[in-house]
Structures are given as C-alpha cells and as structure tokens.
Specification:
Strands 1, 2, 3, 4, 5, 6, 7 and 8 form an eight-stranded mixed β-sheet that branches. Strands 9-10 form a two-stranded antiparallel ribbon. 56% of the residues lie in helices and 10% in strands. α1 packs parallel to α4, α9 (298-329) packs antiparallel against α11 and α17 crosses α19 (573-587). Among the domains are: 250-307 and 350-402, Butyryl-CoA Dehydrogenase, subunit A, domain 3, CATH 1.20.140.10; 405-587, Butyryl-CoA Dehydrogenase, subunit A, domain 3. The longest helix is centred in the middle third of the chain and has 37 residues, at 250-286. The protein has helices at 28-45, 49-53, 57-69, 88-98, 103-112, 117-122, 125-137, 250-286, 298-329, 339-348, 351-376, 386-394, 404-420, 426-438, 452-476, 484-510, 517-549, 552-565, 573-587, and strands at residues 142-145, 161-164, 170-181, 188-195, 199-206, 212-214, 228-239, 243-244, 288-289, 292-293. The chain is of the alpha+beta class and 592 residues long. Residues 460-564 form the Acyl-CoA dehydrogenase-like C-terminal domain.
Length: 592
C-alpha cells in the first residue's frame, strides 16, 4: 500500500518518485474518459462558443444535459447514489478537458463542484433522494451562494439571516448573495445564512421557493457566456428539512467544499492554458515577418518554451496532489456511518496543497494567455481571434475560489498551525536548517545522477523556507498571522518548492518508464527550465521575507544563506529551451 503523506510534509520529507502520481500513470479507462470529455467539448460546445458568449443560456442548459447523459456531471457522487464515484485523478482529468469550452466550462465547474458537493458530502438520505439524481443527470442546474456585497474573502462576515417561523416548519431567510455563478438558470441553490444572526448555517433552496428573487445578469470583463447574478432572499421560506448539515456548522461546508474547488480550478486552468498555448503556436507558425514564420525567431520560441515548461509544472503539481488525495481517501472504509465526515477530514489534510494548486496554476494561465496575446501582436487585441477572449476570461481565476492573496496567506498559516499542533516537526527541522546555515558545506554532487543539481536545489529551498519561517515564528510567535507581507513571502517559497519537486519527481519517475528516449530528454530539458525559474522566484521571495522579518546580524546571516541556497547551475538552459520549443512548434500543441 502507498505511504500516506501528511499535508505540508513535503517541506521536510524526501519523497520517492514511485510515491508520486503523474499523468504518465493514467490507465486506459482514465484516458477513455478524458477522450469522451474532449470529444464532447470539440464536437458539441466549441462550435457554439459565440452563441454561448451571447448568453444563450437555453443552449448552456441543453449542453449541460448532454454532459449529464455522458456521465460527466456525476463523477463525484457515489455509486449507491447513482454516480460514478471516480477517483480525484480522473475527476481532475475531466475538469482539465472541459476547460477549453470557455464560459461553458465555468457553468460546468460551478455545477459539478461547489453546486453539487455540499449535497453529496452533507446531505441527508432524504435530501439526496429529492435532489441528487436531478443534479447529477443535468435535469436541474445548481449554484452556490456564499459571497455577499459586503463579504467576499471574509465569508463568515455574511449578513444574510435565518429565523425559524412561529409554527417551526420554515426558516425565513433575508439577505443578498453576490456574484452567483449559474444564478440565472439554476433550480437549486446552496445558501449560507446566520440563524438568529449568530449560527452560520447552510440551506438547500429551490428556485421556486417563495421569497427567492434572481437579480439581473452582471456585465463582466470576461467569462461573458456564464450566468452571474445576485440572489435576493426576501422573507424566503425554506422548509426546516432543507437545512443542510448542522446548525452553526456552515463554515465546515463552505471551506471544505472550497478546498476541492481550488484543486479543481487548478486542473481547469491547466487545461485552458494548453488550449491557449496551442492557439499561440499555431498563429506563430502562420504569421510571417521578414519572410519567415515568427515561430522561427528566438524571441517567440523562448516564449513557447517557457509556457510549455510552466504548464508541465502545473500539470505535475495537480496530478501529484490528486494522487496524495486518492491514497488518503482510499484508507477510509466504505459504508461506515461517518464516511463523508472522514472523507472531508482527508481532503482537509491537504488544504495547503489545494491552495497552492489554485495559486500556481491560475498564475501559469495568466502568464500563458498574456504571452499568447503578445505573440498575436495587434491581432491579439481583436475579438475575431481567440487570444482576446482567453485574455479576458483568465482574469477571474485569480479572484474566485478565494483570491490568490487569501490563498497565499492560508498556505503557510495552515502549515505552521500543523506544526504548533505537533503534526509536523517543523521546529526541529528549522533548527537543523539553521545548523546547516552556520556550517560550511563540503557536500559534493553525485556526478552519476543526471538530476543531482535539481535535487540539491529542492533540498536547499526547503532549508530556506525552514530558516525564514523559523526566524519569523521566533520573532513574532502567535502574532505572525498579522504579518501578512512575511506570510506572502513564505507562501511563495512553499508554492515554488511544491511545484518544482513535483516536476523533479515526475521526470525522475519517467526515466524508468516505457516512454520514448526523446520524450525523456524533453522532460529533462523542461526540468532545467522549471528549476531555473523556481530558483529565481524562490530566491526573490526569501530575500523579500528576510528584509521584512529581520535586521542586523540575523538579517546578514539569513541573506548569506539565501546566496548559498538559492543558486542553481543552469548550464545548457538555452539549448533546453530551444529543444522544447522546436518540438512544440513542430507539433503545434502542448507536447506532454
């Protein structure tokens, strides 16, 4: 049985490549599901992209019904509940393959994720019998109502209220929910409100319940083909049996479902980045300047290499996390009374990594669409070319499912809380890192190991995180949570380490696989590009954090450690980029 790693443990533990799940590990069944999803998008959705962008929601609902017929809406429901109960790796694969569907993918993701999971995880047998089959077949659309006009990141600051009626049969809800995806056509809403202005609680609300009103469609920068409205609760009467979960435990539903949402968003934006890259390369091959395709110029080919490496890192990170989750969830015995409670604990264990996935992958997409538009030049600014839509649609991904700033603050915060609870021995490891900082290193690299430099870099960056976080904890103690600038710097270290190590272990694992020698060489080239990029980003974050947290002799000591640990010999970097770009340009797509 696979070893079960703790959330955040990657910062202090050396993982064997065999323990990492990678895209090269997909089974034939998983690939078949991916192909089915991709064919649906290619044949049924993309031909209607323009109509969807014009907010033809009848068409969106019709296409969701087709997705339901294919089983794509029931990936997370159990077989007993009529679902497919696919593992997280397969569920992420579906999310990735649906992403090129543009605004339709937003409706799909909201429905299958935050719109469905609260009912699956917390619904009673009666609630599931009443609603779940309608949701997972596409008969009904679903939506999730957490955000309010005055509470975005501060979800628990919501002002919506719920009061029990005099006859005890209904909860009367009042308030306004903001930015509700699928609001214009959903039939079932998961709504959060405070009972007696105090107990944060979730409710299942049907569209036709008395007192529920749908606001006008928001006029948005991007994802124009998705429905985004207010949901207004005006003395809305909710039967008491539609209370979801427990009174006062709505925060558990809100945050646990968001963990999965963040993870799934990481997979979706990776799929969107692949689509954008493909369009960028295709255009670069067609566009000629000075008598030759612009893809033949180094300035353009370097962009293509960087985007390919970025997406490889995002993909590696996502499926590594999927494997971690699947291994953990497989230890939970099916059929036990508190199955979903234990299931949620399993997901919550990797909440830091879910936040990392959301931040890293959404920022990979941001860089990708920016470069794809740049490759298009002036035509990228014209709506007839998809680069313009990619650019507009991307921006929301760094905002919803928790802004990237909030997720950055959560990542080190959750990891340090684990340490304080004794779940991770960060303190003792930080002391070892400080000892290494004070001791001259005479360690020599294994010249027989082709990835020795990258392994050393990952090890050194982990030491940097331990040194920086150890110094910050020692100085600020429990007040560190208020030092957001330092936490943001620590988060960037956490993120770069997890991403780079995911790439390293995937590439290592691939060396003993059946893939071609050429692909192995291209993976090694990609690792070099990712290592150079991660070293630059992590070194800058560590330096920033050091100046924020320390001064005097301690600062001088930490800065010397940064100079020592945040260095990487990237000899052959240009050749690596040219090799990667040449293959991507030839194949006109993401090549892995």
């Amino acid at each position: 049985m696979a070893r079960i790693f703790k959330g955040g443990e990657y910062l202090i533990t050396e993982m064997d490549p065999a323990d990492i799940f990678t895209p090269e590990d997909f089974t034939d069944e998983q690939r078949q599901i991916a192909d089915t999803t991709q064919q649906f998008v290619t044949n049924d959705v993309i031909p209607h992209i323009d109509e969807i962008e014009q907010q033809n929601f009848d068409l969106v609902v019709e296409l969701m019904g087709k997705a339901g017929e294919l089983g794509l809406l029931m990936t997370d429901a159990s077989e007993e509940e009529g679902g497919l109960e696919l593992d997280k790796a397969t569920s992420m694969l579906v999310a990735e393959k649906i992403a090129p569907a543009g605004s339709f993918s937003v409706a799909f993701a909201a429905h299958t994720g935050i719109g469905t999971l609260p009912l699956i995880y917390y619904g009673t047998a009666e609630q599931k019998e009443r609603y779940l089959s309608r949701i997972i077949t596409g008969e009904w659309m679903s939506a999730y109502c957490l955000t309010e006009p005055g509470s975005g990141s501060d979800a628990l600051g919501a002002q919506a209220t719920a009061v029990l009626s005099e006859d005890g049969k209904y909860y009367i809800l009042n308030g306004t929910k903001q930015f509700i995806t699928n609001g214009g056509f959903a039939q079932l809403f998961t709504v959060f409100a405070k009972i007696d202005k105090e107990h944060f609680t979730a409710f299942l609300v049907e569209k036709d319940f008395e007192g529920l009103e749908i606001g006008a469609e928001e006029k948005k920068l991007g994802i124009k083909g998705s429905s985004t409205t207010q949901v207004i609760l005006n003395n809305c009467r909710i039967p008491v049996e539609n209370l979801l979960g427990e009174i006062g435990k709505g925060h558990k539903i809100a945050f646990n479902v968001l963990n999965v949402g963040r993870f799934k968003l990481g997979a979706a934006v990776s799929g969107a980045a692949k689509m954008a890259l493909q369009e960028g390369i295709k255009y670069a091959n067609e566009r000629k300047q000075f008598g030759r395709p612009i893809s033949s110029f180094g300035a353009i080919s370097e962009k293509i290499a960087n985007m390919t490496a970025d997406i490889f890192a995002a993909e590696s990170l996502i499926y590594r996390l999927a494997g971690l989750l699947d291994n953990k969830l497989a230890t939970i015995e099916k059929g036990i009374d508190n199955y979903y409670e234990e299931y949620q604990k399993g997901i919550e264990e990797y909440a830091p990594e879910c936040g990392i996935a959301k931040v890293f992958c959404s920022e990979v997409l941001a860089r990708t669409v920016d470069e794809v538009l740049q490759i298009h030049g002036g035509y990228g600014f014209v709506s007839e070319y998809p680069a313009e839509r990619f650019y507009r649609d991307e921006r929301i991904n760094r905002i919803f499912e928790g802004t990237n700033e909030i997720n950055r603050l959560l990542v080190p915060g959750m990891i340090l809380r684990k340490a304080m609870k004794g779940e991770l021995p960060l303190q003792s490891e930080a002391m070892k890192a400080f000892e290494q900082l004070m001791t001259p290193s005479f360690e020599e690299l294994d010249e027989n190991d082709p990835f020795a430099r990258e392994k050393q870099l990952v090890k050194n960056l982990k030491n940097l995180f331990l040194i920086l976080s150890g110094a910050a904890v020692q100085k600020y103690m429990d007040k560190l949570q208020d030092e957001q600038e330092i936490l943001l710097a620590a988060a960037d270290l956490c993120i770069q380490i997890f991403a780079l190590e995911s790439v390293l272990k995937r590439v290592e694992k691939a060396q003993s696989s059946q893939i071609s020698a050429q692909k192995k060489e291209l993976m090694a080239a990609t690792l070099k590009i990712c290592a150079f990029s991660a070293c630059e980003a992590a070194g800058a974050a560590a330096q920033r954090g050091a100046f924020y947290a320390e001064e005097g002799d301690t600062l001088t000591m930490i800065l010397s450690g940064i100079r020592r640990f945040a260095k990487y010999d990237a000899t052959g970097l240009l050749q690596a980029k040219r090799a990667l770009a040449a293959t991507a340009i030839e194949q006109e797509k993401y090549i892995f």
